[in-house]
Amino acid sequence: MTTPFTICLAGTACTRDEGERTRANSDARIYCPDTGYIPVRIQKELSGSLDAVRPSISVRGVGENDWAVPRDSSEPLMLKGPLDAPQALLDYARKYSGGDQRSLPSSALGWAATALALHTANLALASGATTINLIGHSRGAAQAIMAAWFIYAYGSRDLTINIFAIDPVPGSGQWYGILTQLAPNVRNYVGIYSWDMCLPLDKPFMAVVPRPNLRMLGKSDGSEAVKLGSTWDTLADNYQQDDPLAPGAALQPQNYALFACRGRHSTVAGNSTADSGYDPDNVSAFVAPVPQLVYKLARGYLTQWGALFPSPSAVADSVPALRRRLHTDPARFDAMGGGATRTSSLPGRPYVRRVSSISGRNPLNCYYMDNVVGDPPYRLAYPVTSERTDSGRVAWQFL
């Protein structure tokens, strides 16, 4: 296939019709009407229906079933083939395939993410396309990063992978090397990271910023021989490249873009309530520019990567116009993250988000987000702490 195949990955506790159909604990009205829940709306706009399988398909989130109805069952995952996955990975993933996968403990732990990443990789290879576009939110975005490694290790090294990651959050526990490093087959990576996911209770939402691959660093054409780890969770351990978040000399990869955006974890994916909660009576027109902006970027990058949208964008405003609206009245976003002044008398900067590009179990292996992004432009409202220092080696862009 010459047309790219697009896979849209939902976040934790989100169905394949998230934002399009109301269900218990998720009223569709909380989402911006123009954008819906962005990964699902993109699937609908590309393929014309929620359950279509070409030229795009959706993947359910961790801890949820496929659809709002039925609520008590999910479809089997594609696990055994066409990838030649090792038996240990198949055994690990099998328990998350089919049956009733709706579970609060599963949502919290996120162990099903690996199974959904394998499912995604098999869908990609089975499509017959030579270019695969992956767009995901939260753990769905983290699964996209893992899926590229599964395709590379157990499928084909000839596929081109493009990733649009909306606030990729792996969750607690082990951060594998296949999360913190982009595989050699990833041609483009765009990451959107929410600025106001920074309350003390938000620490489990630490976001992953994967390391650019050698092609992005101008050190390879992508054909290098990679010494893969012997197990699925160690595949990338021998291929960890330069850390984009560490301070030091400038490191500006090609086809690798990091964006900071106002709002919280669900805001950047389509939620338009004033507090990023789930009460439809709290929807705010002042919040809408965030999901509208991310939606516009998603469609723009996917189009650049070859995706064909039959209908025009549902958001008529230009990106500059949306940014002006976003920063005209930032007080609502300030409130989302604990106020306009994020400096606290408490130790450990509790009102600054953490991000990481380091694998392992140590929760201290992370960075303060307001350090790594550098100084926000003076004309944009991005609260930082007085302790802000340094900056990461990769220049971020502020939406």
Structural class: alpha/beta
**Number of beta strands:** 10
Shape: globular
Distance between the termini: 35 Å
Instruction: Tell me the strand order in the biggest sheet.
Output: 2-1-3-4-5-7-10
Total count of helical runs of at least 4 residues:
10
- The proportion of residues in beta strands is 5-15%
Low-confidence stretches: none
CA radius of gyration is: 20 Å
Task: Work out the helicity level.
Answer: 10-25%
Q: SSE order in H/E notation? A: EHEHHHEHEHEEEHHHEEHE
How much is the average pLDDT? Answer: 94
Specify the biggest β-sheet.
7 strands, parallel
Describe the protein's architecture and organization.
This protein is of the alpha/beta class and 399 residues long. It has helices at residues 38-47, 87-94, 104-109, 113-126, 139-154, 177-180, 289-304, 319-328, 331-336, 369-372, and strands spanning 5-9, 56-59, 131-137, 160-166, 186-194, 207-208, 256-261, 354-356, 367-368, 397-398. The strands form two sheets. The chain has a seven-stranded parallel β-sheet with strand order 2-1-3-4-5-7-10, sandwiched between helices. The mean pLDDT is 94.
